Amino acid sequence: MKRLSWTEMFQEKAQAETINRADLLYLDDLLYDLWSLGRNIILVWTPCHNGIDLLVIPYYTIGEAIASRSAAKTDTERKDYHSPVDDFLERIVSGPKHVPAKQLQETAKLFNTTPRHFDLPFTPGDAMPLKTVSALIKRYSITRVEDRAVALFDIVGFSRYSPLEQVTQLNSLSYSVNIAYSKLMDKDIEIRFARTNTGDGFYIWNRDRGIDSNVDLYHFMHLVLAENAVARSRAIKHTAPLLRTCFHVGGHYEFYQSEGLSPTTFSYIVGDVTIALARMIEQAKAGQILIGDFLIPMVDEKTKEMISIDSVEFINRVQPRLSSLKNLVLGDDDRVVSIKCYLTGDKRADGSYAVKQYMITDKHGYSRNVFNAKVNIQRGKGIPIYLGIQEADLDDFGMADED
Description:
The protein has 403 residues and is of the alpha+beta class. It has twelve helices and 19 strands. Helices cover 34% and strands 29% of the residues.
């Protein structure tokens, strides 16, 4: 059985790093057999001379561990979506797939099993980079990420449209995503974006991690909204969607679902950040942009330091980098003159503006804090594009506190 789609994704990299494609196929075949059509996951691994040691466990082992831990928690602890990662299993899943031999043995003991050794026709780290091995193994595993930015685009009133209108609107949104990505690439801003269909919209995230990568996703988000606004200004009724959008940074699990008899080549995410976004979008108004309230350690890609960034500081970091988008073309031929992103609030006596924080309560009774965001885009020829909702239109939205 051939599964070339995955290994072909590594082909360009393999050529650049002089990796033997036959070695890639050999390792992928080995991992596929161990995966056993989704019955098992490969938790961690370590290299050895001419071989590899793998910790392979049935997928339900994780569920059993979670269930036993959950049974010992109080009702209050179960409700806390943002509790710190204190469970040993989550720490393992959050860590790198490539671990030292001692840690592999210790982890195996926690699951009452032993690592499995396999000979290979090459030595990991020599004929094939360790990061390439980990990238292959990740497809057959589960990973937890703590600092991922995710945007959620939701089509307003989607269920009230006919099936053909729904297809048209989803296609329009997908085109806005693709064209925004293409135009960022023209500006040498590379977003390794991934997306999951929610039924009436998309979750979109950057596969790369760190402060700059999360900021790039925010730029990507407002360019998608801008392209959508241009499409709506030109579209016949119901062909381009009215959107509401949420952006948040938090933790999630990443995995690869089965497609036929093989894992997909695209990952899926589920966890704290997607739960928060789903609850936020329920309360968002048509055309609104909501930013979640977060305080998350993120990696500075330049210094490699971990820096705790909150929502307000994050938006402050967005604005200075917007100059790189000047002269970007929106629609067919209208260039961007300037872009301003900000969180809304009331005007103070000294002429400055406060940042207003809102508290919303979802249908399950859980409350969370959010910010209302605006994006103003000045264009060379066309009328300006104003994304989001003004502060004056939010009198009936949530409970507000000024910062």
